[in-house]
Structure formats: structure tokens, C-alpha cells
Amino acid sequence: MIKKDIYAELSANAYPGRGIIIGKSEDGKSAVTAYFIMGRSVNSRNRVFVEDGEGIKTQAFDPSKLTDPHLIIYSPVRVLGNKTIVTNGDQTDTIYDLMNSQQTFEQALRTREFEDDAPNYTPRISGIIKTENGKFNYAMSILKSADGDPSSCRRFTFSYNDPRNGEGHFIHTYMGDGDPLPSFEGEPELISIPNDINEFADKLWDSLNSENKVSLFVRYIDLATGKYESKIINKNN
């Protein structure tokens, strides 16, 4: 697979929608994840990321402008023991609850489908990181309609064991802007992951379309200690 320049990919796509990145820092010391949201409507743009325990949640920046919390207010990141869950919707809670009941990532997602936002039928994208004994593995998932046909749901899971230093994968909801919005296609894209959280966060944020970007979350988890450093950037602040 050809390694892509994540910053160039984002700069060339006015509307990738929501995106998840998971990988390993170049020095091999950190498991890394990032999640961003974008919006075209006033309701979608009226959001910020805020810390919520070990994870984050979305909330309305101006509560008076919130017209429909459905699909836009949720917990994108939750931590269950040595597992970090990252998703673009309330399936975060589904994964957390069912994995806490000894089910797997894949089993949890079999209970869910794409979003009910016709005619887009936005894919549900999810990721999970499991750290153990200084190492980690991760998986990414996408639940999508059959080429815009909501009568059929297609589920894909991609697993990555012993990830290589400086490499990660990027999955997002849309191939680009459109009406209806075209769903992501293919495997998660192979990208590079730097060592510095501030460099990564700032470059990702600068690469997102200035009109449509809303919020960005980045976390680096120290594989030796399990401690993490996070950064949140909100357009509304």
C-alpha cells in the first residue's frame, strides 16, 4: 500500500466529514490516535470537544442554537481498562458496554448500522487501541450502506497487530463533498505518524478545510507507562 501524506490528503478534500487516525509514533514509544469532526450546517458547526473523564464528548457551543442533538452529541472517545475506543457516534457506548460484558469489538458493531441520515446514510467509523506490556494493536471498522441503498449494511473490520514505528491508518466518512455525500471506499489509508503531539495536532488542524472544520482531538499514549497526553482544538472557543 502506498503511504499517503495525511496533510496533503486533508488539504485536497474539502469535506472528508469525520475522521479517525490510529498508529504508532516514529520513535515507537507511543500509541497515537486522532479524531476530527467537520460540519456544513449551523447545527453541526455549533459544537466543541470537551474532556469527559478519560475520554471526550461533544457539546453545543451555543446551547440556544442547538436544533437537533441526534447524531451530533455523543462521546467520541472512551477508555475501558487498557482499551481506548474512538468512534464518530454513539456506537462508542455500544462498544464500551458490550466489551465490558466480554463481547468483542466486532460483535458489538454487529448490533449497529450506518447512520439514519438519508440520503447520505453516513458510515459509522470506529477504532480501538489495546495496549499491553509495552506493546499494542488496533482495529478499525466501517459500517456503510450498499452504495447508498439502506436495505443492506456492509461491515468491514481491519486489524493491525504489531504496528510499525511511524506508521498509522486513516479512515473517514466521506470521499469528498457532494449531495448526497459519497461514503468512504476501500481500506484505511496508510500514513506517517510523527513523534510530537503538538506538531501532529497543529498540522492536522491547519490541513482541514477552514470553513468546514469544527474540532480535533489528538492523544499520545506512552506504551511504557500507559500515561497519555491529549490535545483538543476547537474552532469555537
Explain this structure to me?
This protein is mainly β. The chain has a single domain (6-222), classed as Glutamine Phosphoribosylpyrophosphate, subunit 1, domain 1. The protein has helices at 6-11, 42-45, 91-99, 105-109, 197-207; strands spanning 19-24, 30-38, 47-52, 55-60, 77-80, 83-87, 124-132, 135-146, 149-160, 167-172, 189-192, 213-222, 228-234. Strands 11-10-1-2-12-13 form a six-stranded antiparallel beta sheet, with helices on one face. Strand 7 (124-132) and strand 8 form a beta hairpin. The longest helix is centred in the C-terminal third of the chain and has 11 residues, at 197-207. The protein is globular, with a radius of gyration of 16 Å. The termini are far apart.
Strands, total number? 13
Largest sheet: 6 strands, antiparallel
Q: Give the CATH level 1 class.
A: Alpha Beta
Strand order of the largest sheet: 11-10-1-2-12-13
Task: Kindly estimate the percentage of residues that lie in beta strands according to DSSP.
Answer: 35-45%
CATH topology call:
Glutamine Phosphoribosylpyrophosphate, subunit 1, domain 1
Write down the oligomeric state.
Answer: single chain
The overall average pLDDT, rounded, is: 97
**Whole-number radius of gyration?**
16 Å
N-to-C terminal Cα separation, in Å? 39 Å
Helix-and-strand structural type = mainly beta
Q: Give the H and E element order.
A: HEEHEEEEHHEEEEEHEE
Number of helices: 5
Would you identify the CATH architecture? 4-Layer Sandwich
CATH superfamily (homologous) name = Inosine monophosphate cyclohydrolase-like
Helix percentage = 10-25%
Number of domains: 1
